[in-house]
């Protein structure tokens, strides 16, 4: 294992908000499914402002894959205008036991 491999396994967390045409296209479900596949913990929900908001925690490399998906890909039929990632930090343990859709 090299230094990069070790860095990819550091536990990180961040909040996210996705702007654009992202509601009504299965975005929260696709986000949850992708996070579960990557063993990322946290939550996602539709906001009253028409955005998608959430929090994710997991291995740095896996969270990086989700950052890319949330920024560029999203669910089929969505149109992502902007993605914001805030409150970055490392964590010694995960505060969530799964990845859930909140209402």
TrEMBL record:
PROSITE patterns assigned to the protein according to its UniProt record, in alphabetical order:
ACYLPHOSPHATASE_3
Give the matching InterPro entries.
Acylphosphatase, Acylphosphatase-like_dom, Acylphosphatase-like_dom_sf
Keyword set, alphabetical order: Hydrolase
EC number(s) in its UniProt entry? Answer: 3.6.1.7
Domain (Acylphosphatase-like): give its ranges: 13-103
The broad enzyme category this protein falls into is hydrolase
What SUPFAM superfamilies does the entry give? Acylphosphatase/BLUF domain-like (SSF54975)
Q: Which reaction does it catalyse?
A: an acyl phosphate + H2O = a carboxylate + phosphate + H(+)
This protein's source sits in the domain of life called Eukaryota
GO function terms (MF aspect):
acylphosphatase activity
Family, according to the entry, reads as follows: Belongs to the acylphosphatase family.
Tell me the protein's name.
acylphosphatase
Organism (species):
Anopheles christyi
